[in-house]
From TrEMBL, chains A, B:
<dbReference type="Pfam" id="PF00394">
    <property type="entry name" value="Cu-oxidase"/>
</dbReference>
<dbReference type="InterPro" id="IPR017760">
    <property type="entry name" value="L-ascorbate_oxidase_pln"/>
</dbReference>
<keyword id="KW-0677">Repeat</keyword>
<keyword id="KW-0479">Metal-binding</keyword>
<keyword id="KW-0964">Secreted</keyword>
<dbReference type="GO" id="GO:0005507">
    <property type="term" value="F:copper ion binding"/>
</dbReference>
<dbReference type="Pfam" id="PF07732">
    <property type="entry name" value="Cu-oxidase_3"/>
</dbReference>
<dbReference type="InterPro" id="IPR045087">
    <property type="entry name" value="Cu-oxidase_fam"/>
</dbReference>
<dbReference type="InterPro" id="IPR011706">
    <property type="entry name" value="Cu-oxidase_C"/>
</dbReference>
<feature type="domain" description="Plastocyanin-like">
    <location>
        <begin position="429"/>
        <end position="549"/>
    </location>
</feature>
<dbReference type="InterPro" id="IPR034267">
    <property type="entry name" value="CuRO_3_AAO"/>
</dbReference>
<dbReference type="GO" id="GO:0050687">
    <property type="term" value="P:negative regulation of defense response to virus"/>
</dbReference>
<dbReference type="InterPro" id="IPR001117">
    <property type="entry name" value="Cu-oxidase_2nd"/>
</dbReference>
<feature type="signal peptide">
    <location>
        <begin position="1"/>
        <end position="23"/>
    </location>
</feature>
<dbReference type="InterPro" id="IPR002355">
    <property type="entry name" value="Cu_oxidase_Cu_BS"/>
</dbReference>
<dbReference type="GO" id="GO:0009506">
    <property type="term" value="C:plasmodesma"/>
</dbReference>
<dbReference type="InterPro" id="IPR033138">
    <property type="entry name" value="Cu_oxidase_CS"/>
</dbReference>
């Protein structure tokens, strides 16, 4: 017995030692500021990090601790950064959502985001205050497997493609438009960017089209907007890590002549499937494998185009460059044509192909609670808003994490928001009563309980239109149990839920006039945003707040509490 | 004896009652936000108050208490408001200077500015954080005499003219330019505004000139940029209250055919003198009297034009409209010609005419301390800055008022900044060593001591240029003892100080290659900014910080302390 214990001890020690060696603490020192930049060859100011746009790519390994010492060098604006796809288990105050998990970092102040990355995947980070993501505050966050562990697929090299959209107007002007009577929509973005690079006043593919734009000279282009060419060797397999930080645009990505094998979605393995093109919504990430088995004497297009909205923004383009060809040798054919913006069947077909890789965690077979969230566009005091069950989210000035943990009265609506909507509601028509309310109540879940959310889409305020909304959940992955057309019918549709191999995601789309069912386990003590990832939509109230086990949250750093009522609480020195 | 005491009691009671009746508490509820506006007929976003640009005019009487409940409805920016010309005696935390007297008001938070107005005068208020004044955050603040008291001059009516300048670029872009390598100057403003109204794409005086602009149709102009016409009755006397909130421009104001009698400067009576035109620098205010004794069948121009910088901005214009003439009846001659921008003799002549009205408070005959501030343009780490005695002001993240009062270490440079500069310094040439330092030390004065400041102008960084700088002191009026050419010579120039009737001001200009001597009594416990009122210059470090008697400052409201090190201090619950 004693020797057994001894062996056990040796094994544990060795494992611990291995962990200590393998897991690293990665320290970053960042300054957020505005600077002049030409993301699409037109000079503008961007919000970036350490003078870089997009911000620096973080690469880490599972188990690592990331410390980002973030100093706000903006002149008059606060700032936060959300680590999209990181669950922040044990560190809910590092989720970087203004009004929810922390007070914003004021100009000239520094805050240290410190968190563990516990799962491999393709992620990104971005501003989560006002419309600072639209101002350019984003970058890639890649978590690799621990040393010695292998992905369930092979590749010889990888590329990282962070997709975004870009306006020439300032975010302040965009924000004012959304909060004006009459309402002024931000309009379609001027450019699509791949790794922060696009071309507004020229086109790589000008020679193939009747475009009035001139041809971009790849060699002469200003470096800030010169497309990042993907240099590949023939007959190899490459992993493309693709994430969309777009503010508005749903995108479709295609590579001329090459099929893509989808293997990862939002940091979770999926049953590999091949496609010619793929939709990617804001907040989503994917890994696809491509094999460079085409005619090696040629180069090929990589293109992104707009889906889901009548596109007024040109395709974003770059080149898959078969070495040793010259990068400026353009493909023989025009870039792949983006599927028609309103071909939703094409989109649904793609979404329905995404299934969990065999062996992935399965969802609990039932949920303790099922919440229905009707997505409508409404009026509030004459302002156009988005609402869930007729409540448009107006974030409080005291972040929830502190106000809930310390039981502060009056920090937010203490009445739980509605869990359902009128069964008579006709989702196919504009709302009969166009007026909504504003609120900031919280859906509170029993810790470790299973929750279903049925996201129900509907017609917008006027006209016969229903829009796409990609919903992103903080702090959790969820299983996508199914998508459906029309109004969710609990009696029929629950039976059709995919409990066998539903994919785990952190972002799921609702299609026009349809519904999407998700399930998750509320096992992460904290307060978590769940919202449409289209930034203007969130700004117009399209989100809800979830909370669970806040009493189990550890000591919240004071630095995250120095605003609103938690600041007043700290001042009294009376911490509950 | 007893009856005497009784009479005394009666008299005191009656006086108290009078005071109680006369002094009012004036409550305002303001929301600061951005909204669309067309200050110069070109739509843009402005930062205004309660949807108004400029913000509402405050009118109060001497002795009144002003309470402004200010809610920040900006999305991501903090805000403060400075009450320019109000000494904030006893309420230094209400001076509204970010980093000096208070932590900024964060979005969705409310702060109550509460202060007494103890002297009559023409004042204004404006943002004092980043370049928010340039974004449009300003308005008029008029303090009238107590009921029953009379001005030392007569007038039949009054008008209020708040002057400003306006760029079409966002302040964020302007700010970034100032903090870039290579440096990018903001450039001359697109328009001059009178009461927030200007005309960029048309000219009221187009018919008189070879302007390529069309004529503004006074009746058709959009109301936001339609000039405010001054409707007057013949043969009356009017008081024009004029204040300049310009970000950059020094202005000259003239009224066709009418002389102006200057009677007030920065809220202090001056010996009346008549002029055909007057210079007004940013931060200054004046009252002038005009008599409508000209041909009553005609209307007359009121014009403002740029001085001190090669003007690239058209004149700002409006009409003095003799009733019952129609306002659209334009004057027969073109608008008054603004004196040549570099005719500094004209400017000096005007400044030298400003003398205190007989009976005004006189300065102490000597000063306990004399500080020399050499104004130079320098480089700091390659960035262009303005410096005083080679120190460019970099404001700390903890406001001084709290950090000094509570003796917090490390909140600012505890070494007092230099009181003089190298006697060999050649003010006529660019600096030999172009590099400066940054700092945020404080000049601390013995309470109630008399202080002289000699502002010494010099050549800029390169070329043979010296610029105009209007210096504004918070918390005090000062006597302007004299202006001089070249380098101040203590042996000779002190003897020439005007101690007989120097004007009291809160803003004084230094002319190119010249000096200005001011004297004040440091009798207002608090921490006070003293800076060039040109907003980009302050942003580039052109200011110093004065403090006196901070130990006598009353209980500082916690709301002004919730940032930086004072927030940390409050958190510990250990108030010294």
């Amino acid at each position: 017995m004693r020797s057994l214990l001894f062996i056990f001890f040796i094994v544990i020690s060795a494992s611990l030692q291995f962990c200590l060696v393998a897991a690293e603490v990665r320290n970053f020192k960042w300054e957020v500021g505005y600077f002049f930049w030409s993301p699409d060859c037109i000079e503008n100011i961007v919000m970036g990090i350490n003078g870089q746009f997009p911000g620096p790519t973080i690469r880490a390994k599972v188990g690592d601790t990331i410390n980002i010492e973030l100093t706000n060098k903006l002149v008059t604006e606060g700032v936060v950064i959300h680590w999209h796809g990181i669950t922040q288990s044990g560190t809910p105050w590092s989720d970087g959502t203004a009004s929810i998990t922390q007070c914003v970092i004021n100009p000239d102040e520094t805050f240290v985001y410190s968190f563990n990355v516990n799962k491999a995947g393709t992620h990104f980070y971005h501003g989560h205050y006002g419309m600072q993501r639209s101002a350019g505050l984003y970058g890639s966050l890649i978590v690799e497997l621990e040393d010695g562990k292998k992905e369930p697929f092979h590749y010889d090299g990888e590329f990282n493609l962070l997709l975004s959209d870009w306006w020439h107007k300032s975010i302040h002007e965009l924000e004012v438009g959304l909060s004006s009577i009459p309402f002024r929509w931000v309009g379609e973005p001027q450019s699509l960017l791949i790794n922060g690079k696009g071309q507004y006043n020229c086109s790589l593919a000008a020679d193939y089209s009747n475009s009035s734009l001139g041809t971009c000279d790849l060699n002469q282009a200003e470096w800030q907007c010169k497309p990042q060419v993907l240099n590949v060797i023939p007959n190899k397999t490459y992993r493309l890590r693709i994430a969309s930080a777009t503010s508005l645009s749903s995108l479709n990505l295609a590579i001329g002549n090459h099929k893509m094998l989808v293997v990862e979605a939002d940091g979770n393995y999926v049953q590999p499937f091949a496609v010619d093109d793929m939709d990617i919504y804001s907040g989503e990430s994917y890994s696809v494998l491509i094999t460079t088995d085409q005619n090696p004497s040629m180069n090929y297009w990589i293109s992104i185009g707009v889906r889901g909205r009548l596109p007024k923004t040109p395709q974003g383009l770059t080149i898959l460059n078969y070495l040793p060809n010259d990068a400026s040798q353009l493909p023989v054919s025009p870039p792949p044509i983006t599927p028609s913006w309103n071909d939703f069947n094409h989109s649904k077909s793609f979404s329905n192909k995404i299934l969990a890789l065999q062996g992935s965690p399965k969802p609990p077979i039932s949920a303790a609670r099922r919440i229905f969230l009707l997505n409508t566009q409404n009026l509030f005091n004459g302002y156009i808003k988005w609402s869930l069950n007729n409540v448009s989210l107006a974030l409080p000035s005291t972040p929830y994490l502190g106000s809930i943990k310390y039981g502060l009265k009056g920090a937010y609506d203490d009445k739980s928001p509605p869990e359902n909507f009128d069964s008579d509601y006709d989702i196919m028509k504009p709302p009969i009563n166009p007026n909504s309310t504003q609120g900031n109540g919280v859906y509170t879940f029993a810790l470790s309980s299973t929750v279903d959310v049925i996201l129900q889409n509907a017609n917008v305020l006027s006209g016969n239109v229903s829009e796409i909304h990609p919903w992103h959940l903080h702090g959790h992955d969820f299983w996508v149990l199914g998508y459906g057309e029309g109004k969710f019918n609990e009696k029929i549709d629950v039976e059709k839920f995919n409990l066998k191999n539903p994919p785990l995601r952190n972002t799921a789309v609702i299609f026009p006039y349809g519904w999407t069912a998700i399930r998750f386990v509320a096992d992460n003590p904290g307060v978590w945003a769940f919202h449409c990832h289209i930034e203007p939509h969130l700004h117009m109230g399209m989100g809800v707040v979830f909370a669970e086990g806040v009493e189990h949250v550890g000591q919240i750093p004071n630095d995250t509490l120095r605003c609103g009522l938690t600041a007043k609480m700290l001042t009294t020195g009376q911490l509950p």
